[in-house]
Amino acid sequence: MAAAEGACLNHVSRESTDIKRLAKFYQEIFGFEQVESPKFEFDVIWLKLPSFFLHLIERDPKTNLPEGPWTSTSAVADPKNLRRGHHICFSVANFDSFVQTLKDKGIETHQRSLPNAKTRQVFFFDPDGNGLEVASMEN
Question: What is the top-level taxon of the source organism (predicted)?
Answer without folding.
Answer: Eukaryota
